[in-house]
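hiii so um. not sure if this is the right channel but i have a protein structure encoded as C-alpha cells and i wanna go backwards to a sequence. like what aa goes where. can anyone help
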C-alpha cells in the first residue's frame, strides 16, 4: 500500500475538533461520568484523528433529565410561537454563516467530497431549518361541530389543541450526519419539544458543532442535548428511558426493529426511516445517455450511501445492452479520491467495515451468478475507497438485489413489459423510493400508481423538498419526515369539549 496522504482540512480544523470531545447537556459542555471513548477515523486515509466521549447510562440519564426540565420550564413551555420561529431562523443564519466550515467538517468525518457536502448537505440543511421555522407560527387545531347523541339537551363546543409530544430521542445515521440530525431537531424545536440527539458513532462532529450554534442562537439550555455514544449502549439506554416520549430514528432495518419494540414497550411515539432497495425503471422511449446519466447519479451519489439509492436498475430489453455498457464506462471513468480534492467524484466510504461489507456483497453477487462488469475493488491505498461496481444480469432472487448494500454497487436487470417491471420493482420487502424514466405519461402514471414506495420520481431520482413528505411503506419504515407530516409527528391533538348550556 502506498503512503498516507495527510488531510489538509484536519490541520485547518484541529482546534475545533479537539473542542468537540465533550457531551452537550443542559447547555454545558461536559465530560462523561465514565472513561470510554469513540475513535474518530478519517475515511480518506484511515487515520485516527480524535477521540469522542462514549456516553454511558449516567450520561444518558443526565441528558434526558435536562431535556425534561427544559420541556416543563416556563421559559420554553410558555415561549411564543413567534419566538420559536425567530430562534430557528437565527439557527439557520448561523449554519449559513458557518456553512463552509461545516461542509469541511462533514467531509473530514464522513469522507464525502467537500463540494457535495456544501452544495447538498449544507444548502439542504439551511433551507430546511428555515422551512421548519415557518411552521412554528402555523400550527393549528380544529373546531368541530359535535352532537353528543346520548344527550337530548345541552350545547357543546369542541376543539383540538395540538401539543408537543415532549422529550424526543433522535437517533441518526452517518450518511448525511448534519442533515439527518436537523430533519429531526428542527421540527421538534418548531413544535416546542426538547431533544436528546445521538449521532452515529462514525460521524458525530457536525452534530456537536450544531450544539455550539444552538447555544449561540440563544436557545434556553436543555432544549437540545447531544450525547455521542455507541448504539448498543448509549442508544439502547436512550430508547428504553422511561422519560422519553418519542423516538425518531433513521438507520438500518434490524436496529429499527429493536427501536420499534422498545418504543411500544414504553408506549413512546415513534418514527422509523429504515432504508430501501429502490428501483429505477428505464422505459424504451428514453435515450441511452439520459438513462446512463440518471442511473449514475441515482446510485453513485454520496458513494451509494443513500437510503433512496437507485440500487436496482430495470432497463427495457431494447436498451439493456447499451445502458449496461454506458453505465459501466461511466463508473470506470469516475475519479475516486479524498473528499478534500475538488476533482473527486467518488470519495471513500464511511468506514473500514462498510468498505469490506460492500466488497463482500460484490463477491456474493458474482457467486450468485451476476456478471461483474466493472469495479467492486478496494483501492491499493490507505482509506476506505471502493471502485464503483456494476453487476449485470442480476435477478430478484439474488441477495444483492434484495438486501441494502449502502455502497456504490448497481444491479442491472432487463424487462419486457410494464406489468412485468411493476411486479419486479415491487419484489422486495422495502418500499422507500422508486423512479420511472419515460415521456409516456400513461406508463409513468401506471407505474407510480402501482409501485410500492413512499416517494416516486418521474425522470429524476433522489430529489427531495422540505415541503414534500418523505418516508417508507413496507419494511422501509413507519411515519413521514419533511412537510406538514413531519410537524404533526411531534404533536398530539388534545381534544377539548366544553358544555355551554
Ligand atoms: P444502524 O442502524 O445500526 O445505526 C444507525 C444509528 O442507530 C446509529 O446512531 C447507531 O449508533 C444507532 N444504534 C445502533 N444500534 C442501536 C440500538 N440497539 N439502540 C439504539 N440505537 C442504536 O446502522 P449501521 O450499523 O451504522 O449501518 C449498517 C447498515 O445499515 C448500513 O450498511 C446500511 O445498509 C444501513 N443504514 C441505512 C441508513 C439509512 O439511511 N437508511 C443509514 C445508515 C445505515
Ligand atoms: Mg468518522
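sure thing!! here u go:
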Amino acid at each position: 500500500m502506498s503512503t498516507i496522504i495527510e488531510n489538509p482540512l484536519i490541520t485547518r480544523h484541529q482546534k475545533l475538533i479537539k473542542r468537540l470531545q465533550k457531551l452537550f447537556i443542559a447547555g454545558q459542555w461536559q465530560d462523561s461520568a465514565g472513561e470510554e471513548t469513540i475513535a474518530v477515523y478519517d475515511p480518506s486515509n484511515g487515520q485516527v484523528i480524535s477521540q469522542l466521549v462514549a456516553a454511558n447510562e449516567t450520561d444518558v440519564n443526565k441528558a434526558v433529565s435536562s431535556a425534561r426540565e427544559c420541556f416543563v420550564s416556563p421559559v420554553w413551555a410558555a415561549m411564543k410561537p413567534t419566538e420559536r420561529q425567530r430562534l430557528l431562523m437565527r439557527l439557520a443564519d448561523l449554519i449559513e454563516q458557518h456553512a463552509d466550515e461545516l461542509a469541511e467538517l462533514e467531509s473530514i468525518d464522513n469522507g464525502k467530497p467537500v463540494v457535495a457536502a456544501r452544495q447538498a448537505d449544507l444548502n439542504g440543511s439551511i433551507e430546511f431549518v428555515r422551512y421548519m421555522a415557518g411552521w412554528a407560527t402555523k400550527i393549528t387545531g380544529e373546531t368541530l361541530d359535535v352532537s353528543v347523541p346520548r344527550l337530548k339537551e345541552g350545547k357543546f363546543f369542541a376543539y383540538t389543541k395540538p401539543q408537543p409530544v415532549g422529550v424526543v430521542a433522535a437517533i441518526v445515521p452517518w450518511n448525511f450526519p448534519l442533515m439527518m440530525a436537523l430533519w429531526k431537531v428542527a421540527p421538534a424545536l418548531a413544535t416546542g419539544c426538547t431533544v436528546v440527539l445521538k449521532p452515529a458513532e462514525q460521524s458525530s462532529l457536525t452534530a456537536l458543532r450544531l450544539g455550539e450554534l444552538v447555544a449561540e442562537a440563544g436557545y434556553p439550555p436543555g432544549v437540545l442535548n447531544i450525547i455521542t455514544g455507541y448504539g448498543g449502549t448509549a442508544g439502547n439506554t436512550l430508547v428504553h428511558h422511561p422519560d422519553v416520549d418519542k423516538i425518531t430514528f433513521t438507520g438500518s432495518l434490524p436496529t429499527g426493529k429493536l427501536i420499534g419494540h422498545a418504543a411500544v414497550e414504553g408506549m413512546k411515539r415513534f418514527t422509523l426511516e429504515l432504508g430501501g432497495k429502490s428501483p429505477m425503471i428505464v422505459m424504451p422511449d428514453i435515450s441511452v445517455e439520459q438513462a446512463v446519466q440518471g442511473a449514475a447519479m441515482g446510485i453513485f451519489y454520496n458513494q451509494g450511501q443513500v437510503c433512496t439509492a437507485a440500487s436496482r436498475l430495470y432497463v427495457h430489453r431494447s436498451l439493456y445492452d447499451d445502458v449496461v455498457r454506458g453505465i459501466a464506462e461511466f463508473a470506470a471513468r469516475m475519479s475516486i479520491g479524498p473528499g478534500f480534492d475538488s476533482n473527486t467524484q467518488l470519495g471513500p466510504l464511511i468506514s473500514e467495515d462498510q468498505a469490506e461489507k460492500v466488497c463482500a456483497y460484490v463477491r456474493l453477487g458474482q457467486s450468485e451468478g451476476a456478471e461483474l462488469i466493472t469495479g467492486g475493488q478496494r483501492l491499493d491505498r490507505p482509506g476506505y475507497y471502493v471502485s464503483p461496481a456494476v453487476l449485470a444480469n442480476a435477478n430478484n432472487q439474488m441477495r444483492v438485489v434484495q438486501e441494502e448494500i449502502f455502497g456504490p454497487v448497481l444491479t442491472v436487470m432487463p424487462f419486457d413489459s410494464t406489468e412485468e417491471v411493476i411486479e419486479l420493482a415491487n419484489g422486495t420487502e422495502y418500499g422507500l423510493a422508486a423512479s420511472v424514466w419515460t415521456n409516456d405519461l400513461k406508463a409513468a402514471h401506471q407505474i407510480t400508481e402501482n409501485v410500492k414506495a413512499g416517494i416516486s420520481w418521474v425522470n429524476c431520482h433522489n430529489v427531495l423538498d422540505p415541503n414534500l413528505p418523505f418516508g417508507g411503506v413496507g419494511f422501509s419504515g413507519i411515519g413521514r419526515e419533511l412537510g406538514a407530516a413531519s410537524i404533526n409527528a411531534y404533536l398530539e391533538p388534545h381534544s377539548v369539549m366544553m358544555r355551554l348550556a
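oh and The pocket of magnesium ion (ligand 2) is lined by residues 40-41, 109, 202-203 (CB under 6 Å).
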